[in-house]
Write a structure and sequence with these properties.
Blueprint: E1 6-8, H1 10-14, E2 19-27, E3 43-52, E4 57-70, E5 77-91, E6 100-103, E7 106-108, H2 110-120, H3 151-169
Parallel strand pairs: 5-6
Antiparallel strand pairs: 1-7, 2-3, 3-4, 4-5, 6-7
The chain binds zinc ion (ZN) (2 copies).
Length: 170
């Protein structure tokens, strides 16, 4: 299957300083993210500028994608939108180890966009900074419910843990 982000750069390669804009919305299925955080059926917004240098093409601009995940403390489902600024180099003759390849007179933005989106979506989000999470004993969501578990028991557990840590340090 041909990449939907394959760009012919023959003209750019001919003249350093020339510029080409890419502005596309690409279905997430095209990226084969294979990552549950990426919202199925959504699109990745690709707004990039390709700028010819003497030894390559620099690609800079913005990628946007929708993600879903759950709060790492209370497991409440979360959705969000991520925007990531990118600046990457493409080269026909690779001299920079981080450069992506220009093959023939084409470069493919797909893998570069895929990697940058995956790095940008959160790994362990919180529904809010002070989310109290779930009760470790009964599992109640402490943000919306208070439980009848004894606070004392929890404190004793922490005390036991503190004692352990103190022992380790001695
Ligand atoms: Zn939460
Ligand atoms: Zn409880």
């Amino acid at each position: 299957m041909a990449s939907p982000l394959l760009v012919n750069v023959a003209e750019l390669l001919r003249r350093a300083g020339s510029i080409r804009e890419i502005d596309r919305q690409i279905d997430v299925a095209e990226f084969v993210f294979d990552d549950a955080r990426i919202v199925e059926g959504s699109k990745v917004d690709v707004a990039l500028t390709l700028e010819a240098l003497t030894d390559g093409i620099v690609v800079h601009g913005k990628l946007q994608a929708d993600w879903k995940f759950e709060c790492r403390r209370c497991l409440r489902p979360l959705t969000g939108h991520t925007e990531v600024e990118v600046q990457e180099l493409y080269q026909a003759v690779i001299s920079d180890p981080d450069a992506y390849p220009i093959t023939g007179e084409q470069l493919d933005l797909l893998e570069m966009a895929r990697e940058n989106v995956l790095l940008a979506v959160p790994l362990a989000p919180l529904c809010r900074a002070d989310c109290p999470g779930l009760c470790p004993q009964c599992g109640a969501d402490l943000q919306s419910a208070s439980c009848s578990c004894s606070r004392q028991v929890r404190d004793e557990r922490w005390a036991a843990l503190d004692a352990l840590k103190t022992d380790e340090n001695q």
